[in-house]
Amino acid sequence: MRFSAVARANGPGARRETGRGRWRTARHLIFAVACAAALGLVPAAAVATPGSGVSATVVAEGTSQGKLKVKTPKGRTDVTVREITVLPGGSTGWHTHRGQLIAVVKAGTLTRTLDDCSVEVSPAGTTFIEPSGKDHRHVGRNLGSEPVVLWVTYLLPEGSELSEDAEAVDCPSAR
């Protein structure tokens, strides 16, 4: 029965499409192929796989006061992450860095005096960037009653010291 249906469709009495009909059929075929191809490009959510044997702990997080402008040194970069604790009444001393630092204040409040004598106060939950270079001297102080805990990421030229001592700036607030 199937053979006879095919024979009738393609046999001598079969109606053949010509002109417009053939073009319409070709357009339908092109449309169907295009749809199938487009579906093949859509990523399937089922492709993702869950991780295993991995754990992570957020050790500190903070929010910047504005947009962070991070600049890495030219050439190879040493990346170091440190926890720094400044006890009440403690100070970092005046210093500079050869690369930028990204700091998160995990606990306490850090008061920094910058080389232009401006003062920046960074409480727990905030973050800041210390710029690089000898013209960006600064000192950090803990003027509070609890320890200041910082998580600092250093982005330094390869082989650089984490900080370099600097001459104090004569600022009334930094004495």
Structural class: alpha+beta
Question: If you compute it from the alpha carbons, what radius of gyration comes out, rounded to the nearest whole angstrom?
Answer: 34 Å
β-strand number: 10
Question: Which stretches are poorly predicted, pLDDT < 50 over at least 5 residues?
Answer: 1-9
What would your notes on this structure say?
The model is unreliable at 1-9 (pLDDT under 50). The radius of gyration is 34 Å and the shape is elongated. It is an alpha+beta fold and 175 residues long. Helix content is 18%, strand content 31%.
SSE layout:
Elements: H1 2-10, H2 20-41, E1 63-64, E2 77-86, E3 95-96, E4 100-107, E5 109-114, E6 119-123, E7 126-130, E8 138-141, E9 148-157, E10 164-165
Parallel strand pairs: 1-7
Antiparallel strand pairs: 2-9, 3-10, 4-7, 4-9, 5-6, 5-8
